[in-house]
Amino acid sequence: MVLKWKEEYAIGVEEIDEQHKHLFEIGNQIYDLLENYLLPDKYDKIIQIITELKEYTVNHFKTEEDFMLKIKYPGYFKQKVAHDDFIKEVESIDFSAIDQDQDGHTRKLLEFIFGWVLDHILKSDFGIKSFIQITR
């Protein structure tokens, strides 16, 4: 299940759209790792991707939140809570459990990221797009 960026996912803010594209790339790295049957021990690579995901989303969410504050977006606090919840979920990943069932946990992580990113962009972030269009 590779996640492909489509222009209809764009919210019209170039920096944020580019960051969303990179989130798709991180998700696809997880997918590629899951599909790599030649690599018997994926633990180090999984940890590397999770670390990148956490660091990248923290920066991305700051960019998004700063933009929402700048435009006085009324849905800011709801977005902030969703962002914080995502970070908590990523921080709560049990690395020892991953080591016991690498493919199973990688699959769960992939479903979580793809589901969350798509749902968040298409529902929450599209609110930003609508707000920008209304206030122009």
Task: Give an overview of the whole structure.
By secondary structure, the protein is mainly α. The protein has one domain (12-135): Up-down Bundle (Four Helix Bundle (Hemerythrin (Met), subunit A)), CATH 1.20.120. The protein contains five helices and no strands. It has helices at 14-35, 43-70, 76-91, 95-100, 102-135. Helix 1 packs antiparallel against helix 5 (102-135) and helix 2 (43-70) packs antiparallel against helix 3 (76-91). The mean pLDDT is 91.
Quick summary:
This protein is an all-alpha fold and 136 residues long. Helices cover 78% and strands 0% of the residues. It has one domain: Hemerythrin-like (Four Helix Bundle (Hemerythrin (Met), subunit A), Up-down Bundle).
Comma- or semicolon-separated keywords:
Four Helix Bundle (Hemerythrin (Met), subunit A), 136 residues, mainly alpha
**Distance linking N and C termini:** 37 Å
**Oligomeric description of these chains:** single chain
- The proportion of residues forming helix, as a percent range, comes to over 70%
* Major sheet attributes: none
Outline: elongated
The CATH superfamily label reads: Hemerythrin-like
Main structural class: mainly alpha
CATH level-1 class: Mainly Alpha
Number of strands: 0
**What gyration radius follows from the Cα positions, in whole Å?**
16 Å
Query: Residue ranges: pLDDT <50 for 5 or more in a row?
Result: none
Stated plainly, the CATH topology is called Four Helix Bundle (Hemerythrin (Met), subunit A)
